[in-house]
Amino acid sequence: QVQPVESGGGLVQPGGSLRLSCAPSRTIASYDMAWYRQAPGKQRELVAIINVSGRTDYAHSVNGRFTISRDNAKNTLYLQMNSLKPEDTAVYYCNTATSLFQWGQGTQVSVSS
């Protein structure tokens, strides 16, 4: 089973930035990849997708603030998060766009003053 390892979360004030990283044990170059998040008491939701060609798409709530990217040479997926809001508080996970990998532990992002 492939289990991604997410990192880069933390506590940040509103308006701040964080950069998340994800390094699965299997090469990601042949997969459309995505970031997801799950807030307390809510279902996991899709945040951003990047396909194998580098085309990206975002949830409306993060469009213009978050940027997903991939470095296939480093086998790493990134999520640059700017202008963070309290409603971005959640555990963030990476997986393929169709959730083929086992879910990892995620990384906690907390946005609070």
Oligomer: single chain
Average pLDDT, to the nearest integer? 95
Proportion in β-strands: 35-45%
H/E topology pattern: EEEEEEEEEE
Strand order of the largest sheet: 2-10-9-4-5-6
> Can you summarize the main beta sheet?
6 strands, mixed
Which parts are unreliable, with pLDDT below 50 for 5 consecutive residues or more? Answer: none
Total beta-strand segments? 10
Q: Using only CA atoms, what is the Rg? A: 13 Å
Give the number of helices: 0
Helix content: under 10%
Tell me, what's the shape?
globular
> What is the CA-CA span between the terminal residues?
39 Å
Class derived from helix and strand content = mainly beta
How would you characterize this protein structure?
The chain is mostly beta strands and 113 residues long. The chain is built from no helices and ten strands.
Compose a concise summary of this entry.
By secondary structure, the protein is mainly beta.
Topology at a glance:
Blueprint: E1 6-7, E2 10-12, E3 18-22, E4 33-38, E5 45-50, E6 56-58, E7 66-71, E8 76-81, E9 90-96, E10 107-111
Parallel strand pairs: 2-10
Antiparallel strand pairs: 1-3, 3-8, 4-5, 4-9, 5-6, 7-8, 9-10
Give descriptors for this structure.
113 residues; mainly beta; four-stranded antiparallel β-sheet
